[in-house]
């Protein structure tokens, strides 16, 4: 299954609006998030999310830590600041994500309103998706990334 995220160079946290994709999850309280124009949202939880992508026949896994769950947010946000802080890089021309080892792992697409969309594949960590996870793990050349 695919799950679209927007690349965001301003946000300091990865943000998702779907509780089911968390591998680990902890409810939180009193965590307001302020956005453009002073818009405010409330984070309801935080945890870890694994996202997968395939490029040039290789599957890559990115382990995202301390992802905020904001159920009312319209979009899922991939924090480019956090990606860079953890050792990843990206090409600023076409937003190609690059791993710590310099390997190309994903290419974003430009939306009609000039935002960069990243299309990740995901699985839940529960047994309902064990078959799908096994298929993802068996793909040739899978690499684990931690930015």
Structure description:
The protein has one domain: Cathepsin D, subunit A, domain 1 (Beta Barrel), CATH 2.40.70. The radius of gyration is 15 Å and the shape is globular. It has 147 residues and is mainly β. The chain has 2 helices and 14 strands.
Brief digest:
The chain has two helices and 14 strands; from the N terminus they run E-E-E-E-E-E-E-E-H-E-E-E-E-E-H-E.
Fill in the keyword field for this structure.
single chain, 147 residues, mainly beta, Cathepsin D, subunit A, domain 1, nine-stranded mixed sheet, 2 helices
User: What's the alpha carbon Rg, rounded to whole Å?
Assistant: 15 Å
How many distinct helices?
A: 2
State the share of residues found in helices, binned by percent: 10-25%
CATH topology description: Cathepsin D, subunit A, domain 1
Quaternary assembly: single chain
Secondary-structure arrangement, i.e. CATH architecture = Beta Barrel
Order of helices and strands: EEEEEEEEHEEEEEHE
Shape: globular
- Helix- and strand-based class? mainly beta
Average pLDDT works out at 77
Largest sheet: 9 strands, mixed
Total count of domains: 1
Low-confidence sequence ranges: 126-147
List the helices and strands and how they pair.
Blueprint: E1 2-8, E2 15-16, E3 24-27, E4 32-34, E5 40-42, E6 45-55, E7 58-69, E8 77-79, H1 80-85, E9 89-91, E10 96-98, E11 104-107, E12 109-110, E13 116-122, H2 130-138, E14 143-145
Parallel strand pairs: 1-8, 2-7, 7-14
Antiparallel strand pairs: 1-13, 3-6, 4-5, 6-7, 6-13, 9-10, 10-11, 12-13
């Amino acid at each position: 299954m695919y799950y679209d995220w927007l690349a965001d160079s301003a946000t300091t946290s990865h943000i998702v609006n779907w509780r089911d994709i968390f591998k680990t999850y902890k409810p939180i309280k009193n965590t307001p998030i302020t956005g453009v124009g002073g818009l405010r949202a409330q984070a309801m939880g935080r945890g870890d999310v694994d996202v997968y992508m395939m490029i040039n026949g290789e599957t890559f896994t990115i382990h995202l830590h301390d992802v905020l769950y904001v159920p009312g947010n319209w979009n899922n946000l991939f924090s480019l600041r956090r990606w860079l802080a953890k050792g990843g890089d990206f090409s600023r021309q076409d937003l190609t994500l690059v791993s710590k080892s310099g390997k190309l792992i994903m290419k974003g697409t430009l939306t009609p309103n000039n935002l960069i969309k990243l299309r990740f594949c995901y699985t839940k960590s529960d047994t309902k998706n064990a078959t799908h996870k096994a298929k993802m793990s068996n793909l040739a050349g899978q690499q684990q990334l931690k930015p």
